Amino acid sequence: MRSTIILGVIAVLVALAACTREEPATVNDGNVAGEDAAQEITDEFIREIIAEISSDAYEGRGPGSAGDAKARQYLARRLDDLGLLPGAADGTWEQLFDLVGVNSHQPAKWTFGGPDSSLTIKQWDDFIVNSGVQKERSEVTDAEVVFVGYGIQAPEFDWDDYAGADVTGKIVLIMNNDPDWDPDLFAGDTRLWYGRWDYKQQKAAQMGAIGTIIIHTTPSAGYPFQVLQNSGAGAQFELPAGDAPRAQFNAWLVEDAARELVALAGQDLDVLREAAYNRDFEPVPLGVTTSIAMDVEITRVQSANVLGLIPGSDPILKDEVVIYSAHHDHLGIGPANDDGDTIYNGAMDNASGVAEVIAMAKAFKSLPVAPRRSILIALVGAEEQGLIGSQWYAANPTFAPGKIAANLNYDGGNIWGETHDVTYIGLGKSSIDQIVTLLLSEQGRVVKPDQFPDKGYFYRSDQFSFAKIGVPAVYLDPGTDFVDRTPEWGKQQVDYYTEVHYHQPSDEYDPNWNFDGMIEDARIGFWTGLAIANADDMPVWNEGDEFEAARIKALAAEQD
Ligand SMILES: [Zn+2]
After folding, report:
1. Higher local confidence (pLDDT), 428 or 454
2. What DSSP designation does 84 have?
3. d(C-alpha 391, C-alpha 389), whole Å
4. Segment 219-231, tens digit of pLDDT
5. Angstrom distance (rounded) from CA 209 to CA 174
6. 3-state secondary structure of 227
7. C-alpha 75 to ligand 1 mean position (Å)
8. CA 350 – ligand 1 centroid, Å
9. Using alpha carbons only, how large is the chain's radius of gyration in Å?
């Protein structure tokens, strides 16, 4: 891998007609133009963008709102000022997409009937349910509940929780997470996509299920039930429904309610779960039936990904691209906090990531010769609603998936100063690991793996949309080991932010924020993209990675 990087750097040097053609000792060494370009990433530049789009004038940048449109215009102008080209297919800055708002009026109570008795549970305390369809009414009548274990079909692990059963027209009861007791099975305690609720719901619908119920436990979800209670209020935005099958409803049940539900069938939840830990598990029809109906308010709005392009300098490789992504949206206007503030400014989440990526674009534009491959700055929309803008890009890419060399995603920059480390979400998955590790070592810093592998962060920001179409992707997050601080200090800052400001009106820009660490992180991002854009070969997923098959397919499509 190292030789690939060095070849890339040599290519830069040749392209720049630099005075030396000797092999550089390190990735950076001798790349004077790159060094100068990296210096273009400054505190002042980052600060101005964050302060601007997180100000109240942008109303929290809720998708489809006036503030959202205003932010998109501002960002396009900034990219234009830097000399990027409009990156959307129609020659504009904006790749527009429609959003469907689905506001489910959840029933207050829900009743299940067993052979001998019935059970009625309460909305909010016991269950949360959303419409699975984009229609005015979601309805299921007298459908049977079938326990399907983890609800996973994974041929590469020889695992099929739907084996020997037909769940067409049934409601499936599903455990959260994926098998986590064996490092060779679903990556041990690292949560793969198979362990996420969105996979489970999609899979169940594909199998013909008419409704889904996920059994919520805090360890298996990675967050408390309260997160589901809060996210259930108001409209949930989605891309317009396509041809993919959809269940009528998707629900979450607290563990106690699930226990009572299976008890109606004379079953014990622990015994059922025990059975689901085995490869030879087969779905268990419970002989319990239920009906549920909801009115659904449907609204339609539009948002957009802001796309800016730096064409590559190599006549052939310029058809390939390195994509930097950061979501520009936040939560908009919502419930007031204790101070009466209703604007969810999203300064750290994700005005900071947007500023960081635009600063990298500035560095690329200041190179005397552009990198061999093209660079696309993708400031995507509606991330908070479920990675919608990046999903739309992945479904309608401006470069074919097999021509996208890599995706580097930024969601939340470092506002607390210099660190000895960078948190690397997606470490161990692709050959990008070696590039970042080497570049950091030149700064005297280190890579830290995801500190919460069970939470599945790789699947919770926009890099996931790119990975799904096969693109080697990483999410580089701030480190936690701060210079001249105790090792605990960084974690305390992150925990405090998460508890007090995350997704709250108080995520506001503070002039005291220290961008020294973010500047270093942005320079690493710039150097990483530069090495990838100049290398002879594109990065690859590690052998056996969950996204390798998608990559092989994408590359093959370019061969035909
Ligand atoms: Zn975010």
Report:
1. 428
2. P
3. 5
4. 898 888 987 887 7
5. 12
6. helix
7. 17
8. 5
9. 24
Burial of 489 (0-12, 13-18, 19+ CB in 10 A): middle
The model carries a pTM of 0.84
- Show the tokens assigned to 3: 């030789």
The secondary structure of 135-167, three-state, reads CCEEEEEEEEEEECCCCCEEHHHCEECCCCCCC
In tens, the pLDDT along 315-352 reads 999 999 999 999 999 989 988 888 999 999 999 999 99
Distance 60 CA to ligand 1 centre (A): 13
How far apart, in whole angstroms, are the C-alpha atoms of residue 491 and residue 347? 20
Q: Could you tell me if 477 and 409 are in contact, meaning their C-beta atoms sit under 8 angstroms apart?
A: no
What is the distance in A from the centroid of ligand 1 to the CA of 383? 7
Going from the Cα of 411 to the center of ligand 1, the distance in angstroms, rounded, reads 5
Q: What is the pLDDT of residues 144-162, one digit of tens each?
A: 999 999 999 999 899 999 9
Cα 501 to Cα 495: distance, rounded to the nearest angstrom: 10
User: How far away, in angstroms, is 353 Cα from ligand 1 center?
Assistant: 8
The Cα–Cα gap between 223 and 359 comes to 33
CA distance 316 to 319: 6
Lookup: tokens for 81: 């000022």
Q: What burial class does residue 119 get, using C-beta atoms within 10 Å of its C-beta: 0-12 exposed, 13-18 middle, 19+ buried?
A: middle
- CA-CA distance, 242 to 98, in Å (whole number)? 12
